[in-house]
Amino acid sequence: MKDNDERGGQMKLSNENLQNLPAHVIKPLYDRSTLEAGIVHIGLGNFHRAHQAWYLHRLMQDGLAHDWAIIGAGVRATDAVMRDRLLAQDCLTTLVALDPASETVEVSGPMIDFLPVEDRNGPLIFAMSDPKIRIVALTVTEGGYYRDANGALDTAHPDIQHDAANPDQPRTAFGAMVAAYRNRRNAGVGPFTGQCCDNLQHNGDVLRATVIGLARLSDPELADWIATHATFPNAMVDCIVPATGPSELAYVRELGIEDAAPVTHENYRQWVIEDSFCAGRPPWEKVGATITDDVHLYEAMKIRMLNAGHQVLANAGELLDLPTIASCMADADVAAFFHKVEATEIAPQVAPVPEMIPAAYLELISARFANPKIHDTTRRVAFDGSSRHPGFILPILRDALSAGGDFSGLALTEALWAKMCAGTRENGTEILANDPNWGNLNATALAAKDDPQLWLDQKAIYGSLGQDEAFAEMFAHWLGRLWVDGCRPTLRTYVA
Q1: Which CATH fold would you assign to the domain 296-495?
Q2: What 3 state SS string does the chain have?
Q3: Model confidence over 113-141: pLDDT tens digits?
Q4: pTM value?
């Protein structure tokens, strides 16, 4: 029987209703009841479902990779909310690709289950210990890898200390992976591949260092076994995927679908992957992924120009109360600031990749950022600056300083972030907490109005960079201008 929503005639998303969805909706061509799990994915946010899961869905549409289905997982209490939503609709997701010239609606179905979310991660460890699971993938955000200011494992973090002392009852995803590796080794089963899908340079190396470093704290022999037998391929991922809010939910209902967790995204994807999988992998290259040994070149261009570019836009946008990235690009002052920083300070620190030079990539991302149909909120992009600035902006700053290149706009970007963290927009409205460390950032930003060096003395963020005299002087100059003149006049001063 068709399951229609009485409020507006929408079709509830489910296996039973797939063939009853509106004709314009692209539906799975494969029999989902025959899919077998091969991947556990931790962190079932919008990005994963619009990106990695979509590549697998496309393979399945072509009759391939039916033994690589995804089991979803989470390690935070809030992940249980997404679990309930997805299980209620048979783990299906509506994907809406928004392009200025077209729109595509597709239901994706490579995910077949979502594990219970429990404090000690027992169901997750059990699932990853199964020999049928050959890849464990993660999207846990850039700041989720327990790294200190120098990029090493933060062994002083309470979560890491807990997992080192309680390896059979871990709190973190990485502790759960270590426990599963132990089970597989003890059972004479080979390891799974650990696949990081977050926006981090050398993301596979980061995941490897976190997992092996944590294992070494409780079981050095296991750490050696993981280091010898498991693989952690580097990869670059790219697709702009806004958060889902009331407007996105309403939009999908207007399309005739009742989906509790739909995803809107741009009509662009890129996935560049190092071919280092100890237990095999799906043939992603058949649906557009790039398999290469030069991942670092691709990821450097993307992270430095796109992800860093997002931070260049977002902090200014928050101060000027511009609600979306597209509205930032439509603002003449913010757009001019963005283009100058990208062209004169970031692009010189980026090497070309096959078929793409930095100038052409800047044109590409500028068009993507300006897409008015993508309601990617400035607030979302500005979230967790204490992880994103060290990950995206500061490496470029260090290289520019070392090479004797221009860095004034990058210093202004840091000053804009500090001013934003003071918590008040130019129009007097409040900027609500938008960082896991907001309390400290807010207090430091307010104190830095009179003493800018206090902001740079946050060693967990800036490390030794905060003591660089040239950078500190330029940062203090711009922060002072922001407090005295305001955001828009300061941007114009820089551009001029």
Answers
A1: N-(1-d-carboxylethyl)-l-norvaline Dehydrogenase; domain 2 (1.10.1040)
A2: CCCECCCCCCEECCCCCHHHCCCCCECCCCCHHHCCEEEEEECCCHHHHHCHHHHHHHHHHCCCCCCCEEEEECCCCCHHHHHHHHHCCCCCEEEEEEECCEEEEEEECCEEEECCCCCCCHHHHHHHHCCCCCEEEECCCHHHCCECCCCCECCCCHHHHHHHHCCCCCCCHHHHHHHHHHHHHHCCCCCCEEEECCCCCCHHHHHHHHHHHHHHHHCHHHHHHHHHHCCCCCEEEECCCCCCCHHHHHHHHHCCEECCCCEEEECCCEEEECCCCCCCCCCHHHHCCEECCCHHHHHHHHHHHHHHHHHHHHHHHHHCCCCEHHHHHHCHHHHHHHHHHHHHHHHHHCCCECCECHHHHHHHHHHHHCCCCCCCEHHHHHCCHHHHHHHHHHHHHHHHHHHCCCCHHHHHHHHHHHHHHCCECCCCCECCCCCCCHHHHHHHHHHCCCCCHHHHCCHHHHHHHHHCHHHHHHHHHHHHHHHHHCHHHHHHHHHC
A3: 999 999 999 999 999 999 999 999 999 98
A4: 0.84
